[in-house]
Specification:
Layout: E1 3-8, H1 12-23, E2 28-32, H2 39-43, E3 49-53, H3 63-69, E4 74-78, E5 85-89, E6 93-96, H4 102-116
């Protein structure tokens, strides 16, 4: 079963970079959702990972609601310039995303899902 990734509120160029990094992988599917999508509309897509654009990725305000409504979900909050990215998961726990590259992004998505579904 492929890992479902939902993109929300990423800038055009950042959304393109993330989409390009992930869609070439057969085990990952990407849905680009409309800007400002509600938590309910995001969760209708049953994502394993949600990637959101956030001014302050370490304190993304929507993470708590998303995580409390879908067990095992991972939220990647990424700054508009992609210089700062954090992974949020229920605990609440967050961790810095050390390197933002296509390969690091693919590996982080896979690792996040593996931790959620061992």
């Amino acid at each position: 079963m492929p890992t479902r990734v939902a993109l929300v509120d990423l800038s055009g160029l950042l959304a393109d970079v993330v989409t390009d990094a992930l869609t070439s992988e057969p085990d990952l599917t990407v849905s680009v959702l409309p800007s400002g999508s509600s938590v309910a509309s995001i969760l209708e897509h049953h994502p394993d990972v949600v990637m959101v654009g956030a001014t302050d990725p370490s304190h993304y305000p929507g993470a708590a609601e998303l995580l409390s409504r879908q067990l095992g979900l991972r939220v990647f909050a990424i700054s508009p310039d992609a210089k700062d990215a954090w992974i949020h998961w229920l605990g609440p726990c967050t961790a810095p995303f050390a390197e933002f590259s296509a390969e690091a992004l693919r590996q982080a998505v896979r690792s996040a899902v593996e931790r959620a579904h061992p």
